[in-house]
Amino acid sequence: VSEAEWEAVRKQHEEYVWGQAHRFSRTAPDQNETKKDLFQEGMLGLHRALQTYDPSHGCKFNTYAYHACR
């Protein structure tokens, strides 16, 4: 995965990952730190999804990445 591909995907999905991090951190005692950690994990999942995505399986990248970020 090239740096340009990663930047394009990161920009497109960053808001979604922040939203999921916020959603899952609401019940944590230290919400701010937990949200940051969850965001980092979500971005790692997004990067992993970009590396392993295979369009020949008939699934859109957004659908594939959605499960990797959760």
Averaged pLDDT, please? 90
Number of strands: 0
Structural class: mainly alpha
Could you estimate the helical fraction of the residues in percent? over 70%
List segments where confidence is low: pLDDT < 50 over at least 5 consecutive residues. none
Largest sheet: none
Beta-strand residue percentage: under 5%
**What order do the helices and strands follow?**
HHH
User: In one word, what is the shape?
Assistant: elongated
> Gap between N and C termini, in Å?
21 Å
Note the total helix count.
Answer: 3
Q: What is the rounded Rg?
A: 13 Å
Structural commentary:
The protein has 70 residues and is mostly helical. 77% of the residues lie in helices and 0% in strands. It contains three helices and no strands. Helix 1 runs antiparallel to helix 2 and helix 2 packs antiparallel against helix 3. The protein starts with a helix and ends with a helix.
Write the layout of secondary structure elements.
Blueprint: H1 3-25, H2 31-52, H3 61-69
Features:
mainly alpha; 70 residues
